[in-house]
Amino acid sequence: MSDVLILPGLFGSGEGHWQQHWLQDQPGSRCVAQDDWDHPDLDNWLRRLEGALEEAGEAYLVAHSLGCLLAARLAGRSAARRVKGALLVAPCDLLATENLHPGHISFGGMPTASLPFPSIVVGSMNDAYMTVDRLTLFGRLWKAETRNIGLAGHINVASGFGRWRTGYRLLEALKTRAGDGRRIVSTQPAYAM
């Protein structure tokens, strides 16, 4: 069984967040942490992710918000070969995030390179951190399957996402498809929580 590396967003995934439940419910999952979740350091976090991938040998990534951008930064890096697949939930748009939380992040520009591993990007129609048009754009740029789950906000505790069982099913679908080397292709939106 491959490890699952959890990549939280800005401010971390606090108590009750679906990623916290994931760490309890999913054997072999662990968080790739920051020293300061309020002011994440991209270079340091990327080194930690690469080290965690090296230690695991290979792993799936389960990212939320800013963590999705960290995962996307692996494109073109040697550590990407260790990623079996990535579930990227509610990626944030850096400009929107900087406007909502001035002075908290310095991540440069949005990553735009296609991801060299199978990926599912999950977003919603009313996420303050990324519009649905930008979600579609980055899903296409990253060569990921994009799932719009409707009016789900930022897919966090504030929008009602505690233990998110659909996320577990999405990862299982990703594992199944990654296992036989097929690129994930779907034209069907998923509207379930």
From TrEMBL:
Please name the InterPro entries in this protein's record.
AB_hydrolase_fold, RBBP9/YdeN
Q: Name one Pfam family in it.
A: Ser_hydrolase
Cite the GO molecular-function annotations of the record: hydrolase activity
Q: Which domain of life is it from?
A: Bacteria
Alphabetized UniProt keyword annotations: Hydrolase
Do the record's keywords include Hydrolase? yes
| Name listed for the protein in its UniProt record | Putative esterase of the alpha/beta hydrolase fold
